[in-house]
Design brief:
homodimer; six-stranded parallel β-sheet; about 40% helix; about 20% strand
């Protein structure tokens, strides 16, 4: 009975680290989840990080997957000149959307993509984020991606994998690749 | 011109380490690749490591993905009493199949799942495996998964990520979960 109860608990999974494969692993989880006819929601906390290939691939997997693109684009890079307040407002909206989805009880798996980055850039507060995670329905599986996962998140997570960059093609002058990077 | 040439080079990608997310990331790559209408082949070097959810999810993604289940099941664990020769014959067959697929020119992305494990258990030789990888068509993207990637493979790879286990649910007495582990 104890075990059965435990079996039903949804997991909090964190993919962090500086290596490639964090969002990709989250994407791989959707394939597995679809095999079980699960309902899936993906919320992107940083806009523009998902590229043509994955967006198109996700579409082919629908109607099982819903995708919400939030945020106002890569912060502090690629010529970003937007004031921090604009990013924070977008972060707040993304968090509100995530809260709605989480509390709706409609999903088996919710992916909070690049949430770690939104936290570490102070676009959303620890208090609000932690409250959201702690209030999730017991059976819901949550996946959080992004480098720099905060220690408090690692502590409350069930499964944490650090993707460590051992070798990256850009080191060797190879450009971003269709089908691989976008 | 130089850059254009480089862009077309297929990558050799390795996901290794003791953490969760290696095969899952490979699976995520198939979603992205399908978005580009790529043809994909997955060859499992160790049988029985893929479970219901991912097999069923992969089916929904077909006809873009072909899956070959090779090997004779988890070696040395779960009461395996088969002689090593039987595993080696299965490894040889898996390598032959992989060679065929690689040289066929029909695929944009080939995933050699748990190949690292087959190498480290001496089910297949370094010489044969290295020859196969070095002879791949230039444009083909190869993904190799499994813990204990050999150093020579890391050296010839374009992208290597180590999935490091920071926290695992089994440590906390949580059983394998439907939709997450199988």
């Amino acid at each position: 009975m104890e075990n059965k109860e435990k079996k039903k608990k949804g997991l909090l999974i964190v993919y962090t680290g500086d290596g490639k494969g964090k969002t990709t692993a989250a994407l791989g989880m959707t394939v597995r989840a679809i095999g079980h006819d699960w309902k899936i929601s993906i919320i992107q906390f940083i806009k523009g990080t998902w590229k043509y290939g994955e967006l198109e691939g996700i579409k082919r997997l629908s109607p099982h997957i819903e995708m919400e693109t939030m945020g106002v684009g890569c912060i502090g890079i690629m010529g970003d000149k937007k004031p921090i307040e604009e990013h924070q407002t977008a972060g707040r909206k993304a968090l509100d959307m995530a809260n709605q989805k989480i509390l709706s009880g409609k999903y088996n798996l919710i992916i909070l993509d690049e949430l770690n980055v939104a936290i570490s850039l102070n676009l959303i507060s620890r208090e609000d984020t932690e409250a959201m995670i702690r209030n999730k329905p017991k059976e819901l599986n949550l996946v959080v991606t992004g480098r720099n996962a905060p220690q408090w998140l690692i502590e409350i997570a069930d499964l944490v994998t650090e993707m460590k960059e051992i070798k990256h093609p850009y080191q060797q002058g190879i450009l971003a690749q269709k089908g691989i990077d976008f």
